[in-house]
Amino acid sequence: MRGQGRVMSVFREVGGLVTALRAAQSRGFRKLSVYSPIGLPALEPLLPRQGSPIRFFVLAGAIAGCLLAFWMCIGSALLYGLIVGGKWPASVLPYCVIGFEFTILFGGLTAIITIIAFARLRPAVAECYDPAFGEDRFGLCVYCPPEQTEAVAAMLREAGAEEVHEHRGAS
After folding, report:
1. Could you say which DSSP state residue 132 is in?
2. Structural domains in the chain?
3. Which uninterrupted H or E stretch holds 149?
4. Which of 8, 32, 78, 114 measures 20 to 30 Å from 50, CA to CA?
5. What is the DSSP letter of 122?
6. Which phi and psi angles does 14 have, rounded to 5°?
7. What 3-state class would DSSP assign to 8?
8. Who's near 155: CB < 8 A, 6+ residues apart?
9. Do residues 167 and 153 lie in contact, with contact meaning Cβ atoms separated by under 8 Å?
10. Cα separation of 168 and 150, whole Å?
11. Residue 48 class from Cβ within 10 Å (0-12 exposed, 13-18 middle, 19+ buried)?
12. Angle subtended by helix axes 14-26 and 149-158, to nearest 10
């Protein structure tokens, strides 16, 4: 299995970082990491958005809760022959409140469980992080195939990077 290369660059100014980020995206690189000592709202449109899978788990939990509530209500009504308001024992309308409550309950519990599962609560060490990114420098790490690291490094130097570090990855 071939490893993935990465090229880490350090910038003194935001302009160089923006130029390098646009150049990397125009050449088709999608896996990027940006490091900054301050929040930069101007960079948000340039960065790739990654959706969270938590919302799908919460939706599945909420649907499962709703189905479970109706199954419990209708099943117990049919099993014990409960007459609700003079209607057939398996009337759906009286059980909507319980279905709603189970939907909220199971959706909330699933949200808490999946947030904890996806939070990665162990310390994570970023491969490209430099302590200068927390003070007065900006960083861009471009993940690329190992054979393209030299071309990416040249592109980042053209954009105005102070330092460029290449890592070809394991072969």
Report:
1. G
2. 5-37+136-167 (3.30.70.120), 54-118 (no CATH)
3. helix 149-158
4. 8
5. S
6. -70, -35
7. strand
8. 20, 23, 24, 27
9. no
10. 9
11. exposed
12. 140
Q: Which helix (H) or strand (E) holds 129?
A: none
Q: How far apart are CA 106 and CA 99, in angstroms?
A: 10
CB within 8 A of 52, min separation 6: which ones? 118
Q: How far apart are CA 54 and CA 97, in angstroms?
A: 26
Q: Where are the alpha helices (DSSP H) in 27-148?
A: 54-80, 96-118
Would you tell me how many other CB atoms lie within 10 Å of the CB of residue 95? 19
pLDDT tens digits, 58-77: 999 999 999 999 999 999 88
> 117-168, pLDDT tens digit by residue?
988 777 666 677 777 777 888 888 888 888 888 888 898 888 888 888 888 7
Task: Please name the residues in contact with 104: beta carbons below 8 A apart, sequence gap of 6 or more.
Answer: 62, 65
Please measure the distance between the N-terminal and C-terminal CA atoms of the chain and give it in whole angstroms.
7
Structure-token match 């599962």, residue found: 117
Q: In this structure, how many other beta carbons lie within 10 angstroms of the beta carbon of residue 52?
A: 11
| Collapsed DSSP state (helix, strand, coil) of residue 83 | coil
Neighbours of 89 (CB within 10 A): 15
